Structure formats: C-alpha cells, structure tokens
Amino acid sequence: MRTLYSLAWAVAGLLAPIRLWWRGRREPGYREASGERYGRYATPAPVGATDEVVWIHAVSVGETRAASPLVERIERERPGARIVMTAMTATGRATARALYGERVVTAWLPYDLPGAMRRFLERFHPRFGLVMETELWPNLVAEAARAGIPVFLVNARMSGRSADGYARVPRLVRPMLASLAGVCAQTEADASRLRALGAADVAVAGNLKFDVASPPDAHERAARLRALFGAGRPVFLAASTREGEEALIVDALARRPLPGGTLVVIVPRHPQRFDEVARLFAGRAIAYARRSVGDAIPPDTGHVLGDSMGELAAYYGAADAAFVGGSLAPLGGQNLIEAIAMETPAIVGPHTFNFADAAAGAVAAGAAIRVADADALARAAGALCADPARRQAMREAGRAFLARHRGATDRTWSYVAARLAAPVSRRDAGSGPRDPARSASRPPT
C-alpha cells in the first residue's frame, strides 16, 4: 500500500514546482529554498556534527505557536540541544522565524517521498522528533523507524471525520501509527480514535495551546492600538476570518447595526487576502482605514482592515468583544484560546471541529458564546458591546477556564522524557542502523 502511496507522491512531486511558483505569486515564501521540499539542504549544515538535535514539525501558524511551551521546556531540560523546526506553509515558516529567531533552525519538511525523507533525516540526525497535532506522513515515520529515530505525535487530535477517512486505508495508516514512539493526545476522545486506528502507546496530555503565553508586550501594544482606535468607543473584532466570512459579517452588521460609535475591526487569517477584503469594503461603499498606515482612526470611520502581521494578541486586547473566525463557514474554527488568554469575550460560530473540546468547554464555562449564523453573531456582538457587566463576567470565567486546563506541557514532556530514558526495545533494536553515539538514550536533566 505504501508503494502506491509513494508512487502517487512521485507524480505529485513532478508538478509541485509549478504549484510552488503559483502560490509564490501571492506568498513569496513558497519560492524560498524549494530544494528542501525534496530533501536537498544547503551546505554547510546549520548544526554541528556533535550537536544533539531535537526536531519539531509544526505545519503552519497555529501549530508553530502551540509548540512554544515545548521549545522553552526543551531549552531548559536539554540546554546543549539544537532545535530544528520544520514547516509546510510559508506562514508557518515565517512565524517560526518571528517567534524563535536564531534559537531554532528553520527548514521545510520534504514532500513525503522515501528518498526525500531519508535525506532529511540523514541531514539533521535528530535524536528524536516531535510532530504536532495531525501531521501524519507514512514515509516519514517509516524512514525514521528504519533509522532508529523515535518520533512522537504530540498535542494530537483526531476528529471523528478524520478518523473515518484514515480508517479507509488501514494498510497504510496502521503500520504508520504502530511505528510511532508514542502519542500524546489532547483528549480521551482523540486518544480512543488514535488507538482504534493502530496507535499503540497513547496518553492523554491535554492541549498545549492552553499553556501558550501571550507575547510579553501584547498588553502594551493593545493599549497603543486602543488609543489609535479611539479610547472612548466600543470595539468589535472579527479575528482570523476566512474566505466568505467577511461578507457575511459586514452584511449582517448592516442589517443589525452595533451600538452607536462601535468600531468594527476585521483581521483576515491569511495576509494574501488583505486586498480581497479591501475590495469588499469598497464594493459595499464602506469607509475604512488600514491598520498598516498607522494613523489614528477618525470618529466617522466605522471599519478598520487589520492588514498587519504579528499583532493578533494586541487586536484581541484592544477589543471589547471578538468573533473567532473560521467558524461561520464550515472550516473548523481558529484558536479561541488566544482571545480568552487576552481576557476578551469570545464569540464562535457553529463550526469549531478543529477546537471541538476547547470551544465546547469555553461555552459551557461562560467564557465564550456560540452563535448559529451571522445575524446571531451581530446580535451577540451588539449585546456584549452594550453590557460591561456581561463582559467582565466572561473575562472572569475565561481566567478560571484557562487555569483548569493548563499543564499539558508538563505532561507531554514527562511522557516523552520517560520513553527517551527507557532501554531500547527489541523492536527498536531491529529497526535499522544508526550512529551509536546519537542513539544512546539520555535521561532528562
């Protein structure tokens, strides 16, 4: 089965340069270091021959941010290690560079071709790998097992819909999951689905995103934003909006206006859509300002296009209430924990399967409100902007909700460290050759 899978990747790999070039028109990062997509990395190596390398794979922005508590923990526990972080998206790679700078080496993870994955592993020789959430690549796992490199799936989630899809190809999926060194799932439901698909050593560790701290300057930047927005006017934020959602929101707010003077700030999830949202405003004859210009917002301007990067936490902190995007359209929702961490009352739509447990828990705790559609969103936003007492109650509920769910980093690291310190099993010993100096298990410091 893996042979057919690899053949399909080989065909796709022939067309991939065209796709990278096409995507690079709007996101130039996709044209950067394209040879890495095939396991061909620049010389000299960015890590020394004697360095212990820890590899973390975080496909895009959300996973890259979620990895930050693990990065900090690894730096404390294994201070001599060099961290290599791979990504698949241009925004993920850019986020890693912005968050970690020279602390980590950034690279593309190759396409899931056996030779490309083999070259990647030979290039960096990681002591072990941590793959975030649902990035399951059969050839990657197989080549790591062959080389004797333990790979852990951490912060793992597996929705019912995804599990049904994986279950259709058991001959591909079961060997892959069985070859993992271990799995740290977010919830018991995720763990049960992963076990049913073939994962052998699964623990429930919680969601690392609850442990992600807001940037240290987030509140200061939020205060500056609020001053630009106008200190005396309510602010409603539509954050991380996805395709089609901005039009739904703008039209719903036209039918059900927010309290007088409320400023509506819309921040698209992807920077390549900034101009698309600008055209939406122009087409609706809506007066708006661009955040990137940096000017104070005139009182007679009712909308702001949040076309800046790296300011999401500040946007949340500057808002009285926030809609968390990707949830009006059936896209699974973005990370509402970021809003709650900035003590901003959150509103989500009906589609939150990417954060199913976090969203359900936040709503049940009173830290978030779920709405059925855009008109209900407009009603909820208007009610929150007009009700300071309700907003304060939601902030307090949010603080308690976050406190109850922290600790995933400790549980994840304890799980991984224990398995790294354990003696090599007979199965591991027979998985393939590797450098004994690199393969020696080292207990956590």
Describe, in plain words, how this protein is organized in 3D.
- The chain has 445 residues and is of the alpha/beta class.
- The chain folds into two domains: 12-206 and 407-439, 3-Deoxy-D-manno-octulosonic-acid transferase, N-terminal domain (Rossmann fold, 3-Layer(aba) Sandwich), CATH 3.40.50; 218-405, Rossmann fold (3-Layer(aba) Sandwich), CATH 3.40.50.
- Helix content is 46%, strand content 15%.
- It contains 20 helices and 14 strands.
- It has helices at 2-23, 61-66, 68-77, 90-100, 114-124, 138-147, 160-167, 170-179, 188-197, 218-229, 245-255, 274-283, 312-318, 336-341, 356-365, 374-385, 388-405, 408-421, 426-429, 436-439; strands at residues 52-57, 81-87, 104-108, 126-132, 151-156, 182-185, 202-204, 235-241, 263-268, 288-290, 303-305, 321-324, 346-348, 368-370.
- A seven-stranded parallel β-sheet has the order 3-2-1-4-5-6-7, sandwiched between helices. Strands 10-11-9-8-12-13-14 form a seven-stranded parallel β-sheet, sandwiched between helices.
- Strand 8, helix 11 (245-255) and strand 9 form a beta-alpha-beta unit.
- Helix 6 runs parallel beside helix 8, helix 10 crosses helix 13 (312-318) and helix 11 packs across helix 16.
- It is globular, with a radius of gyration of 23 Å.
- The two termini are 41 Å apart.
- The model is unreliable at 425-445 (pLDDT under 50).
